[in-house]
Amino acid sequence: MHLVIPHAAPSGPQCQAAHERLELPHLRQALRVLALDGEMRGSESDLSPIAERVQTHDAYADGLIPWAAMAAKQLPGAPDVGAWGLITPCHWAVHADHVAMHDTRTLRLEAAESQALLAAMAPYFLEDGLVLHYWQADTWLVRGEVLRNLPTASLNRVRGQSVDAWLPRTAAARVVRRLQNEMQMLLYTHAVNDARSARGVPVVNSFWLSGTGDLLENEPQRGGIAVLNALQSAALNDDAHAWTQAWQALDSGPIAEFAKVLQGPPGSGALPALTLCSERMARTWRLQPQSLLRKIQTALRSPNPVTLLKAL
User: Fold this and answer.
1) Which tens digits make up the pLDDT trace of 184-226?
2) What is the 3-state secondary structure (H, E, C) of the chain?
3) What pTM, to 2 d.p., does this model score?
4) Residues spanned by CATH 3.30.70 within the chain?
5) Phi/psi at 282 (nearest 5 deg)?
6) Which fold has domain 67-213?
7) Burial of 74 per CB tally in 10 Å (0-12, 13-18, 19+)
8) Is residue 234 within 8 Å of 242, Cβ to Cβ?
């Protein structure tokens, strides 16, 4: 078991000030028996958030973590080789000085709606050698050679945020930008959007491409990793109250269960680990085999979670 917690220490001033109000007894309990096992550094401007790099053992270049190629291996009837990308239907709101993406989870696309939109869009993608595959109502897969070395920003960078800084601008990305423009015109009068407008729910007027690239020949194993994204929304909005509540819910839920695992008999496989992520750093603590004396010394420690979060 390896828990990864993104946005554990956001940079927003309100959340920063809220650190002192955190009460995280189960995190403290877990850290008491874990040992620091390494750290990874990143930047708020990286296309791939540091939590995603942790999940893939930092094996890929920035913006080229092939989430889509990993998903394609599980897609019936689709080739599991080649370059892939994730296509996320979304709603863009155009403002005077920027374009923002609504949180894609609020669209709540139904399967029939999603499949109808894909069917309308697929011929335009195919003209550029890009083949769309239905995967889930809120996420499709796309296959094409142009995606092999095309870095793209994670959906987690733009969900509910301005998209301007994250749009791909390389020469290879011109086809993507053109398709985004064409889809805006196509979708403007689509029957699915007419029906959604009549219901008073957001329409689909664009898409986001992410998770591009192809798999390594020796793909690193990622089994046992659980990413807990409960802090994301509050952190991105610098909502200190919601962030502290989300932290306390994590502490009383999955972290409490994790702390119980640490107290139990050792299992087979990888040792349990916990990774806390800010935008700039990820630190991993792992259960280490210990002598009786070391266990006693460890039990007497009382690490302060707030201090550790502030150091991220």
Assistant:
1) 999 999 999 999 999 999 999 999 999 999 988 777 676 789 9
2) CEEEECCCCCCCHHHHHHHHHCCCHHHHHHHHHEEEEEEEECCCCCCCCHHHHHHCCCCCCCCCCCHHHHHHCCCCCCCCCCCEEEEEEECEEECCCCEEECCHHHCCCCHHHHHHHHHHHHHHHHCCCCEEEEEECCEEEEECHHHCCCCCCCHHHHCCCECHHHCCCCHHHHHHHHHHHHHHHHHHCCHHHHHHHHHCCCCCCEEEEEEEECCCCCCCCCCCEEECCCCHHHHHCCCHHHHHHHHHHHHHCHHHHHHHHHHCCCCCCCCCEEEEECCCEEEEEEECCCCHHHHHHHHHCCCCHHHHHHCC
3) 0.88
4) 67-213
5) -130, 130
6) Alpha-Beta Plaits (3.30.70)
7) exposed
8) yes
User: Amino acid identity of 270?
Assistant: A
208 pairs with which residues across the strands?
A: 88
Query: Of 28, 24, 26, which is closest to residue 248 (Cα–Cα)?
Result: 24
Cα(227)–Cα(291) distance, rounded to whole angstroms? 31
Find residue 189's DSSP bridge partners.
Answer: none
Question: Side chain identity at 6, as an amino acid letter?
Answer: P
Reading the block at residue 29, the tokens are 């309990």
Q: Which amino acid is at 299?
A: A
